Predict the structure.
Amino acid sequence: MDLTDIDAAAWAELETAAADPQSGFRYLNLCSVDAEARPQARMVVLRAADRSARRLEFHTDTRSPKWLELSANPHVTVLGFSAGSRLQLRLQGKVELHGPGSGAAEAAWDKLPARTRTTYAGGPPGDQRAFQTTDMPEPADVAEGKARFGLLNFRARTLDWFQLRQQDNRRALFCYDEAGALASCRWGNP
Ligand SMILES: Cc1cc2nc3c(=O)[nH]c(=O)nc-3n(C[C@H](O)[C@H](O)[C@H](O)COP(=O)(O)O)c2cc1C
């Protein structure tokens, strides 16, 4: 496989992961920097991927600390590992935030299954929980979720591709331009 094949295969795997809960890259680590310049990381579900724009989509609650962090500093690293292919993908770039009321957030909300909408029905993420319950949220609370739902559009500018092998690990580095076209690529020492 040459470098352009590796790049194409990595993005094809991300596109597959967005549609397949069993895929290794379905859950990715989204890393940001907070107001005190401390690194912050958390798992997120990959909701969509577009290889031509080098775009990944994530969903989150706009009341969460990450939303505030990303509003102030949109630079992120997205880290994934697939045990099946023993592949690490480390992408760097920026996120665009689409908050409640935006066309992008409304369109994504409309496509969410009812069970996923309940994720946004509770109190603010991280706040102390007043009580434990296994009850389903009230329909009114589920409807409220739309006003908290945010979409993160990540555009990758670099991909650091690393394959762990029994010997002879492989690493390749890719840069993309603003439109997502491959601007440069090279092999790297692992
Ligand atoms: C497998 C997995 C998937 C997750 N997916 C999401 C997600 O898609 N969006 C999200 O906001 N939080 C998701 N979470 C929860 C986050 O990892 C995190 O705990 C939460 O969003 C609070 O992050 P913050 O305090 O940095 O804002 C997921 C957690 C796990 C374990």
About this structure: The beta strands are 27-33, 39-45, 48-50, 55-61, 75-82, 87-98, 149-163, 170-176, 182-188. The mean pLDDT is 93. The pocket of flavin mononucleotide is lined by residues 27, 40, 42-45, 58-61, 64-66, 125-126 (CB under 6 Å). The longest helix spans residues 3-19.
